[in-house]
Write the structure tokens for this entry.
Amino acid sequence: MVIIKKSIDIKVPISIAFTYFARPEHVSDQMTGKGIAMTVIPMDIKDGMGVGTTFRIIGDFNGKRLEWDCVTTEFKKEEQISAKMIKGKFKTWSITTKFKSINDNLTNISMIVNYELPFGPLGKIINMLGFEKSASKGMETALYKVKGLLEGNGSIPVYITLNAYKKLIEEKKKMNNVPISSVLSAVLDKYSNITTQIKN
């Protein structure tokens, strides 16, 4: 069994960090780079990505493509999210992401992956020849990319319902086809102004 653990401090409240990591496809968006790429496809969503949610991971590790299906086994708000493989090439595979609030605007995030490659002794050789190093580097890079995004150095992917997206498209047409991000900002600003007026 191989255990890879990576940890990082991100300058955001724990609620923001948890909300981002609660969607596995968000994290997979950051796991791209030299030698590694990962795609996560939610399949059956339970209780807002909670326990019982299944998703498929498609990974490319230095040209070696692997696919495996997972199920969320733990979902403790602002504490921990865990998932394990239920179908795939690994003998075993699991991931746990832990969240710890350091102060109101600083959160420590730890990702722990446990896995065992198939093929017996051959699997151990494959691991020694670079699989573990590639997976470790990918996790580290992903955490730094998430840090950059959440601390405001990039754009966070937004996942919304189809109906909400259709309404944004309607607003986009009314606003002379400005970018969707501008439409969303305008809608949120309008909502914020209305909320402020109601409170006053």
